[in-house]
């Protein structure tokens, strides 16, 4: 079975091979495990990029294959980050607090330790009590389960409500955007229990690994991200191949027809929505320890729209397209906004790329949508000689799918 | 015939002589005593003993004599005295206004004439230094002068000062000044203030009750400010029943919500009726203080890591007499049971507190009603802002079905157009009149350009329209940032839009919000007229319902789409000017409104302007309602509102007013 699945999809093997090569190359060039050609911060950037590729795969699954333009997947990404962040922050603070209290004249009680941790973590929002949502913060196992459970549950409830009432197309997009905005606004409050707009910080320090240098930690996370991306790619490829994949593509192209054929469209959509939310949660849980800080601004609707932009530029409906888009656009964005690109003198004024990159990105996105709907992935079609049918002339009517002038003559 | 008599002495001369002598004497006198005693000096001399002694208890007659003398200089004398500028000349006991010169000498000025009488050495003088008590008494006396000042502005000023810091001592002068008040407005103000001061400071309970009752149903904030202190209570604990004579607001039963047991015991401790409870901190401190040979009360230090062990160690310490015995929970409960708790009014008279309570209750009921009205106005104003922001979308998204994520940026463009116009045209009124059509023109052009260049290629792919317009949106936003910078730009409204329409102390609405409401109304009428009565509206509706059929009827769908889209964008531009007037213009102005605008259109029902109106009203009312329930937190209000909308969509997926039949499209 596995053999035939891989045989039918040679692109998987190529992708996994390239990913393995890339991981090996970065490992050999990193400061901790190799020649030190790549700085620790760049290893982190690459690791983060792999996480973004993973969520781009999730986005491709839900948008490119199932046709649901979700503008909420970065909310799931952020939730995953928050879940792991709670454990990282609690555990590290606990170790510091215990370390400092151990020197006291009499040993601290459990209550005193909890109070001290609470003051450390929530002092910044003027509180010292642990909110109920931190109940499991001391347990890594439970927080790891929550990394997938919380986004999955939110997606389940939201998706069930939305799909049940047949909200589709742009309405669903706006609704998911509203959900993301609601979540971000909620987290911005100081009494949300997650430190308001301060967010969770110091996540790059692994509890109990204080002696291990960041260069080593960064390469660990890089490996974990690469592994997660490989597994996520395999899972996504498995889901979209075979009959299940055919049904969800059918839903994308004509939902009503699939429903009339007897398939439970809502069930399929809900499954895809929930599983991609979980993948996003995992991606977030790997991303934010590398970023070191998470705050509600990360969840804002604009982030989810950028995600859609990456997938569209990379090429919808093909998994490697999503990966290419996410990697390319996020890395180029980092490059441009990091101020490393030389300014472009135009004589009358100078173009500072830090200021103008957004404009270029926005316009290039319009161009891709208009002229290359297949995105960068379309180039691979050209290599294989697959071309879209040529439709010349102006459309005869403004309806979707109306014949073009030339077609009518033939 | 009368014999000639010698010419007698010129009669006048004989009279003149003693006069001249007198004159000479006076001049001589004046030379030796340079100041002629005047009425002010007389009063001061009369009270010179108490003035010199200067005690708060005895000084009142002197102040009264000055204040009630009716002399024009009285006010100045009091002010000088209050400012510690009154000096006593030792040699003759006269009082002067003194000014310290750079040479350390004192220049003396006579109170009656205002003439400088000379300079004197500090040693020959004595400065009158009224203490703070006396100065307060003087200030009270001065209020009367200000309250009766010929200048109405000064009188109003004095009233404002009293209003700001009401004080018992101001009541009498205020009452005194009412009779002579000529200005009707000021008189009404004085009378109102007198009644307020009566409530707070009058000695006579009946007068206070009468004053309280005279304010029945008055919505003024000042009334509530006067009534509330009367009703302040302190929570007290008594070993037995509360003593008679206390004005008890209510008795409290410990253990209920109003007074949890722990709090009740804290009251007992605070009243020194019982020993304090052992807190975790006390416990820890006791442990730290009694470490002996690595153990506390026989318990090794290393074992002291739970509260139970610590309490055991503490008990051992108490037995040894090292620490006072701790209060156990049972003892605390017992103590709470035997004590009585009550809220006691600080005001002694029960009749007054009852009257104040009743009046405040009636006022609060009325205030609640008015607050409801105010909330309604707020909601209406927010709704009109949402409606303004959404009406352009109602055209492009509602009628044409085009998702324009750059709609918010058109609003922003409109606002920036207004800002640029104000840079060129300095007159605010003119600039707004110029800005509105200009904003329409700019955004109309931008909308048409966008439709021609991008959107028309994507009519059959709505999701891609969404993304492409989003690309334009981020490009426009960044462009605005590059041109205008990140800081907020002001769009100043004309002077006649400043201020607010104040109905009473509770209900008020700013003119600018009324203007926005009116603008929203105009747009609604314009939209209805355009869609129902004009050729373009007819064609738009035809193209929306069935583009193929419309095209075969001779309508050019391309042209109609272009114009409709331009129109929707143009209206967004005008909305931008309006929104910019009351919010700061930033490059993020549009994105603040875009989600709400889409919500408004979706909730209302796509393709129907009445639906958009209802949607805006509902969202505005909802947001204000939630804000009212949770006033400190607008973020939470928005969160709950969005959740509500998501649930609302479950029950009416096509909005409040859903199109039915063929018009509904698919």
Automatic annotation (TrEMBL), chain A:
Where can this protein be found?
Answer: Cell membrane
Q: Which InterPro entries match?
A: ABC_transp_permease (IPR001851), ABC_transptr_urea_perm_UrtC (IPR017778), LivM-like (IPR043428)
Task: From the record, give the transmembrane residue ranges.
Answer: 71-90, 140-163, 170-188, 220-240, 267-287, 293-312, 319-336, 356-383
The coiled-coil segments of this chain are none
Q: Keywords for this entry?
A: Cell membrane, Membrane, Transmembrane, Transmembrane helix
Chain segments carrying region Disordered: 391-410
**In what way does this protein cross or attach to the membrane?**
Multi-pass membrane protein
Q: What is its main location?
A: membrane
Q: Which residues form the signal peptide?
A: none
Top-level taxon of the source organism: Bacteria
- Keyword Cell inner membrane part of the UniProt annotation: no
Name listed for the protein in its UniProt record: Urea ABC transporter permease subunit UrtC
Q: Which organism is it from?
A: Thalassovita aquimarina
Q: Which gene encodes it?
A: urtC
């Amino acid at each position: 079975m596995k053999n035939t699945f891989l045989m039918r999809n040679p692109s998987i093997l190529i992708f996994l091979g390239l990913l393995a090569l890339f991981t090996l190359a970065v490992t050999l060039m990193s400061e901790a495990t190799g020649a030190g050609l790549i700085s620790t911060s760049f290893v982190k950037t690459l690791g983060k990029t792999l996480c973004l590729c993973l969520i781009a795969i999730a986005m491709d699954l839900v948008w490119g294959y199932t046709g649901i333009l979700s503008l909420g997947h970065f909310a799931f990404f952020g939730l995953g980050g928050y879940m792991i962040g709670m454990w990282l922050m609690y555990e590290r603070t606990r170790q510091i607090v215990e370390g400092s209290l151990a020197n006291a004249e009499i040993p601290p009680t459990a209550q005193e330790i909890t109070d001290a941790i609470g003051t450390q973590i929530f002092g910044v929002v003027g509180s010292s009590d642990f909110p109920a949502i931190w109940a499991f913060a001391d347990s890594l196992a439970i927080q790891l389960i929550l990394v997938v459970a919380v986004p999955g549950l939110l997606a389940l409830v939201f998706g069930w409500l939305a799909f049940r009432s047949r909200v589709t197309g742009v309405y669903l997009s706006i609704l998911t955007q509203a959900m993301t905005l609601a979540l971000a606004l909620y987290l911005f409050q100081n009494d949300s229990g997650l430190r308001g707009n301060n967010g969770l910080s110091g996540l790059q320090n692994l509890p109990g690994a204080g002696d291990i240098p960041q260069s080593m930690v960064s390469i660990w996370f890089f490996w974990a991200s690469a592994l997660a991306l490989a597994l996520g790619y395999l899972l996504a490829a498995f889901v979209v191949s075979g009959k299940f994949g055919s049904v969800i593509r059918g839903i994308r192209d004509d939902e009503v027809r699939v429903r009339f054929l007897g398939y439970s469209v809502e069930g399929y959509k809900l499954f895809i929505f929930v599983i991609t939310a979980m993948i996003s949660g995992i991606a977030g849980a790997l991303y934010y320890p590398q970023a070191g800080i998470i705050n509600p601004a990360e969840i804002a609707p604009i982030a989810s729209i950028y995600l859609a932009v990456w997938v569209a530029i990379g090429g919808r409906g093909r998994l490697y397209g999503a990966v290419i888009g996410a990697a390319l656009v996020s890395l180029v964005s980092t490059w441009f906004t990091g101020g490393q690109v030389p300014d472009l003198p135009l004589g009358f004024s100078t173009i500072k790329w830090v200021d103008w990159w957004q404009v270029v990105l926005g316009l290039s996105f319009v161009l891709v949508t208009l002229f290359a709907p297949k995105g960068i992935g379309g180039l691979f079609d050209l290599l294989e000689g697959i071309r879209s049918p040529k439709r010349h002339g102006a459309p005869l009517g403004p309806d979707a799918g109306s014949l073009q002038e030339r077609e009518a003559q033939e | 015939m009368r014999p000639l008599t010698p010419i007698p002495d010129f009669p006048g001369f004989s009279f003149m002589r003693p006069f001249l002598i007198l004159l000479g004497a006076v001049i001589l006198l004046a030379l030796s005593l340079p100041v002629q005693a005047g009425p002010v000096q007389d009063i001061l001399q009369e009270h010179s003993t108490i003035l010199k002694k200067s005690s708060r208890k005895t000084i009142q007659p002197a102040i009264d004599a000055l204040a009630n003398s009716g002399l024009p200089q009285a006010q100045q004398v009091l002010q000088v005295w209050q400012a510690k500028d009154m000096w006593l000349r030792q040699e003759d006991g006269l009082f002067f206004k003194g000014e310290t010169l750079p040479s350390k000498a004192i220049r003396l000025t006579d109170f009656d004439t205002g003439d400088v009488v000379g300079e004197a050495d500090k040693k020959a003088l004595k400065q009158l230094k009224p203490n703070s008590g006396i100065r307060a008494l003087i200030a009270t006396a001065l209020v009367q002068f200000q309250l009766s000042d010929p200048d109405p502005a000064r009188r109003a000023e004095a009233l404002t000062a009293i209003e700001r810091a009401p004080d018992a001592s101001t009541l009498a002068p205020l009452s005194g000044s009412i009779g002579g008040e000529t200005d009707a407005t000021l008189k009404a103000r004085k009378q109102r203030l007198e009644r307020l001061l009566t409530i707070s400071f009058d000695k006579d309970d009946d007068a206070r009750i009468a004053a309280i009752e005279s304010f029945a149903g008055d919505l003024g904030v000042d009334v509530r400010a006067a009534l509330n202190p009367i009703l302040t209570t302190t929570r007290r604990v008594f070993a037995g029943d509360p003593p008679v004579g206390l004005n008890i607001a209510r008795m409290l039963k410990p253990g209920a919500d109003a007074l949890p047991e722990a709090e009740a015991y804290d009251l007992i401790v605070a009243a020194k009726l019982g020993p304090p409870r052992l807190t975790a901190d006390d416990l820890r401190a006791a442990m730290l203080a009694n470490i002996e040979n690595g153990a506390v009360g026989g318990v090794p230090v290393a074992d002291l890591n739970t509260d139970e062990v610590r309490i055991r160690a503490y008990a051992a310490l108490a037995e040894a007499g090292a620490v006072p015995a701790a209060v156990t929970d049972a003892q605390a409960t017992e103590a709470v049971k035997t004590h009585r708790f009550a809220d006691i009014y600080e005001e002694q008279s029960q009749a007054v507190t009852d009257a104040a309570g009743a009046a405040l209750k009636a006022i609060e009921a009325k205030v609640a009603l008015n607050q409801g009205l105010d909330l309604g106005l707020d909601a209406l104003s927010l709704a009109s802002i949402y409606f303004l922001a959404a009406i352009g979308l109602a055209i492009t998204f509602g009628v044409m079905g085009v998702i324009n994520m750059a709609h918010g940026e058109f609003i922003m463009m409109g606002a920036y157009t207004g800002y640029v116009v104000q840079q060129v045209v300095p007159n605010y009124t003119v600039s707004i009149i110029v800005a509105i059509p200009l904003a329409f023109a700019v955004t109309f052009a931008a909308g048409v350009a966008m439709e021609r260049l991008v959107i028309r290629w994507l009519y059959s792919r709505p999701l891609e329209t969404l993304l492409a317009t989003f690309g334009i949106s981020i490009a426009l936003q960044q462009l605005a940032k590059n041109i205008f910078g990140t800081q907020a730009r002001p769009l100043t409204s004309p002077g006649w839009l400043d201020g607010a329409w104040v109905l009473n102390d509770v209900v008020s609405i700013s003119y600018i919000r009324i203007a926005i409401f009116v603008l929203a109304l105009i747009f609604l009428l314009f939209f209805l007229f355009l869609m129902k009565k004009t050729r373009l509206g007819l064609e738009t509706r035809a193209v929306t319902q069935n583009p193929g059929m419309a095209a075969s009827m001779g309508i050019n769908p391309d042209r109609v789409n272009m114009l409709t889209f331009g129109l929707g964008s143009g209206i967004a531009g005008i909305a931008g000017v309006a929104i910019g007037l009351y919010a700061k213009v930033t490059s993020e102005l549009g994105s603040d409104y875009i989600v709400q605008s889409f919500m408004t259109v979706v909730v209302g029902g796509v393709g129907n302007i009445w639906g958009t109106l209802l949607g805006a009203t509902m969202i505005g009312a909802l947001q204000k309602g939630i804000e009212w329930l949770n006033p400190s937190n607008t973020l939470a209000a928005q969160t709950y509102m969005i959740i509500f909308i998501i649930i609302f969509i479950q029950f009416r997926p096509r909005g409040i007013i859903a199109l039915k039949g063929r018009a509904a499209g698919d």
